[in-house]
């Protein structure tokens, strides 16, 4: 039996057999959303091989339960490439999610905006991404499944439903392109200008490896950025991780409203 299958069995013993309809990975400063789920919380240290989410602002636990009447699996934190140099650091958690029978993955992150019309405290729905960090979580995979098409990496149907939920909740949700930098240092003003030339609308240090892994595993994926700052050189604000954590709650309230509406309405028979 594979490691992910063993972990899935362990999780079912604690949380029941019903497959989650949605997996949700929470970004920096957004982990409190997992506390809104009615269900069972399993610390990552009970899930052998799961990351310990060594970044402040993350909550290292998996919560399986119900939110707005939908069965969800919420990851209160993620492992980042910059923590270990491994782009596939979230592979086992996502393999476990797939082994639980989940088919849809929603990701959130804290990001820096490159557009004046997407200000700190706002949200951005990812329409596409640029893997500027230059690594790939499927390096080393031996099967031909590693050649994953990424044309529809950000699921159009889920994006449309998120957009509709945003309209219904009167939450602005512009679409844009997210550019993945490796971190942990923030980008230089020159790198921000380069990202703008490439067509990026926001920058961050996560999410792209998980989208690639999700598509590899057959999950339908969508992602939303909570904008916590403007990119380096685009404002006078001081960029830091503490600033990111302080600003994330401004967008988190909007994100929670949007996600609750989405879960209430999407795919209802």
Automatic annotation (TrEMBL):
<keyword id="KW-0808">Transferase</keyword>
<dbReference type="Pfam" id="PF01048">
    <property type="entry name" value="PNP_UDP_1"/>
</dbReference>
<feature type="domain" description="Nucleoside phosphorylase">
    <location>
        <begin position="22"/>
        <end position="264"/>
    </location>
</feature>
<protein>
    <recommendedName>
        <fullName>Purine nucleoside phosphorylase</fullName>
        <ecNumber>2.4.2.1</ecNumber>
    </recommendedName>
</protein>
<comment type="subunit">
    <text>Homotrimer.</text>
</comment>
<dbReference type="InterPro" id="IPR011269">
    <property type="entry name" value="PUNP"/>
</dbReference>
<feature type="binding site">
    <location>
        <position position="187"/>
    </location>
    <ligand>
        <name>a purine D-ribonucleoside</name>
    </ligand>
</feature>
<feature type="binding site">
    <location>
        <position position="229"/>
    </location>
    <ligand>
        <name>a purine D-ribonucleoside</name>
    </ligand>
</feature>
<dbReference type="GO" id="GO:0009116">
    <property type="term" value="P:nucleoside metabolic process"/>
</dbReference>
<feature type="binding site">
    <location>
        <position position="58"/>
    </location>
    <ligand>
        <name>phosphate</name>
    </ligand>
</feature>
<feature type="binding site">
    <location>
        <begin position="78"/>
        <end position="80"/>
    </location>
    <ligand>
        <name>phosphate</name>
    </ligand>
</feature>
<dbReference type="InterPro" id="IPR035994">
    <property type="entry name" value="Nucleoside_phosphorylase_sf"/>
</dbReference>
<keyword id="KW-0328">Glycosyltransferase</keyword>
<comment type="pathway">
    <text>Purine metabolism; purine nucleoside salvage.</text>
</comment>
<dbReference type="InterPro" id="IPR011268">
    <property type="entry name" value="Purine_phosphorylase"/>
</dbReference>
<feature type="binding site">
    <location>
        <position position="28"/>
    </location>
    <ligand>
        <name>phosphate</name>
    </ligand>
</feature>
<comment type="function">
    <text>The purine nucleoside phosphorylases catalyze the phosphorolytic breakdown of the N-glycosidic bond in the beta-(deoxy)ribonucleoside molecules, with the formation of the corresponding free purine bases and pentose-1-phosphate.</text>
</comment>
<dbReference type="GO" id="GO:0005737">
    <property type="term" value="C:cytoplasm"/>
</dbReference>
<dbReference type="InterPro" id="IPR000845">
    <property type="entry name" value="Nucleoside_phosphorylase_d"/>
</dbReference>
<feature type="binding site">
    <location>
        <position position="206"/>
    </location>
    <ligand>
        <name>phosphate</name>
    </ligand>
</feature>
<dbReference type="GO" id="GO:0004731">
    <property type="term" value="F:purine-nucleoside phosphorylase activity"/>
</dbReference>
<comment type="similarity">
    <text>Belongs to the PNP/MTAP phosphorylase family.</text>
</comment>
<feature type="binding site">
    <location>
        <position position="110"/>
    </location>
    <ligand>
        <name>phosphate</name>
    </ligand>
</feature>
